[in-house]
Design brief:
- Two copies of one chain form a homodimer.
- Chain A is α/β, with parallel strands linked by helices and 302 residues long.
- Chain A is built from 14 helices and seven strands.
- In chain A, the strands form two sheets. In chain A, strands 4-3-5-6-7 form a five-stranded parallel sheet, sandwiched between helices. In chain A, strands 1-2 form a two-stranded antiparallel ribbon.
- In chain A, helix 7 runs antiparallel to helix 8, helix 7 runs antiparallel to helix 9 and helix 8 packs parallel to helix 9.
- The radius of gyration of chain A is 26 Å and the shape is elongated.
- The termini of chain A are far apart.
- In chain A, 41% of the residues are buried.
- Chain B binds a DNA duplex (30 and 30 nucleotides) through helix 2.
DNA sequence: CGAGGTTTGTCAAGAGTTTGTCCAGCTTTG
DNA sequence: CAAAGCTGGACAAACTCTTGACAAACCTCG
């Protein structure tokens, strides 16, 4: 998306409020700018150049001499490509970006988070951020607009990463939220982690009538079914269907709406409130040889 | 479609407000225009040429030099070539894949569809598929499970393509579904097409309380706000807030729940039921010079 | 403090590029 | 036939390039 090597020197000079001669001097003397060139040799500045100019200006405003300011700006520009940040800082940066409705920055922080792998990103950044957003929303420190904005960007990222999770040769997991339940982010996190362990994912998403989940399970014969619920009532309202599902396939309920006791009543398994735990718990069980139809038949191993 | 290659140069020149000599120069020097020719050699401009001119003008209004503006306009134009294979076959293949819960195949068909560009894929494949799914669901030929399965795969694809749609320098559009409304796919299609035209997108997604949409609009100051609704009641239930929004920004309602009459009552604009129409309609208005705060102030141009 | 050197923003000259516009001579259209 | 178009070349205005220079500001050090 960087087709933006556009501005010629006059426009760029006006844009960043630096005289043309100075722009050329900074390029010549410090290598601060790296404009492309037109076929005739005209400079074509990009947004990267713009960022470097702004960094330079910021440092000079602090009283730093031009040569040093340029060196700092260049160093920052280089550091932008190799960030090393702690998860807590990433969560804070995500919250800041969400508060400012800065989708570009939010996405950049997600880039950094996911550069550490799915597990670390989800466990240490994405889920803590969702919790933080929820907390602040409850304390009215954050508007619904912020929550929607951030949730969408996280969802977009997770679904992008989910590309291809249905392919492969591992056991099949069917993922859904039962009727009424619309919080899918945890479920998608779970699916991603499970796919990392070699599972294939079939995903039905939010608010799926329990009868349809049962029907799909009967057709695709998954090795496991995962139902994610935030609100307890979405389990109790669908109790009969869930019990039916439990008889058909190894069924797991997870999320804050589920509990060990409730799962037992429904005749299904419980995997805790945390999708990371749930995925690792489900994935780390040793699989039976491929000749078995289901690794779960005969109940879960001790 | 638009086989209306009809304007001769004088009329076209007046239409797009570019002198005839300049039109010929842009064609000769940048290949920006590809008018058909009459038997005697007269240029016959089409709506595609008009779109390219508008893209060119948009970039030049941002201060980008003509040569670069033309290159950008051409790049955008290339992304919307008309497919050579039959879209109908793709729709049929998608339905078959959905019926079999074959996510891998479904995704492969989407690959093919989107190889023809966002516009063609959305207009000729994605939207027809959604309509088809809706129809078959109403006739009970398709279970909710199939619908969820397919919707999720389409959503996943669209959101993946939406990566980066917030970046750039064009006018900003704020997209949301008001409270109660959960059908976002059309809205995302709209956003993708608008982003192709150089707009920046800020997205709040489904079921956003109208007060929060207003609050976000007041903060990010979009050039346009788009509300997508399938059910009419989600407009009427939020009437006061929508009118307030209309006073704050150029607000457009679209989708099957909207209508010209209802929009007028609410004091906002109506863009039809089809996101493709809506996006092209909004995008193709010539933008005022960058010095103006909003291209819409003073109402839409004649 | 003051001499001597370095840094930095700015300028100028002369050559080259980009771009909107125009012209001449000829053709097409209605 | 008159109005409108076409081609190809040509041009001037605006813009940009490089190189070299220069003065003011800033340093270092005796």
């Amino acid at each position: 998306m960087d087709t933006d090597s556009c501005w010629r020197i006059k426009e760029f000079s006006a844009l960043v409020d630096v005289p043309e001669a100075t722009l050329r001097a900074w390029e010549r003397r410090y290598g601060l700018l790296e404009p492309q060139r037109s076929s005739g040799g005209f400079r074509l500045y990009s947004t990267a150049d713009e960022r470097r100019i702004h960094a330079m200006q910021r440092h000079m405003a602090e009283g730093i001499a031009p040569a040093q300011a340029a060196a700092l700006a260049l160093a920052e520009s280089a550091a932008r490509e190799i960030p090393s940040t702690r998860p807590g800082e990433l969560v804070a940066a995500l919250m800041t970006a969400a508060r400012a409705f800065d989708a570009t920055d939010f996405d950049k922080q997600l880039d950094i988070a996911f550069s550490f792998g799915h597990l670390a990103a989800i466990r240490d950044v994405v889920l803590p951020t969702l919790v933080e957003i929820g907390d602040r929303w409850e304390r009215a420190e954050l508007a619904v607009g912020h929550e929607h904005f951030a949730s969408h960007l996280i969802e977009r990222r997770l679904l992008s990463l989910a590309q291809g999770w249905e392919a492969g040769r591992g056991p099949l997991a069917l993922l859904a939220c039962p009727a009424g339940e619309r919080h899918t982010l945890g479920l998608v996190c779970f699916g991603l982690l499970l796919a990392d362990q070699g599972w294939r994912i079939s995903y039905l998403g939010a608010d799926t009538p329990i009868d349809d989940i049962v029907a799909v399970a009967a057709e695709v014969l998954p090795s496991a079914v995962m139902l994610a619920v935030r609100d307890r009532e979405h389990l109790t309202n669908n109790a009969d269907g869930i019990t039916e599902l439990g008889a058909l396939a190894h069924t797991v309920v997870a999320g804050n709406g589920a509990s060990d006791e409730l799962a037992r009543q429904l005749g299904v398994h419980y995997a805790g409130g945390d999708p990371v735990d749930a995925a690792l718990q489900l994935a780390e069980r040793p699989l039976r040889p491929a000749s078995d139809r289901s690794p779960w038949e005969g109940g879960p191993p001790a």
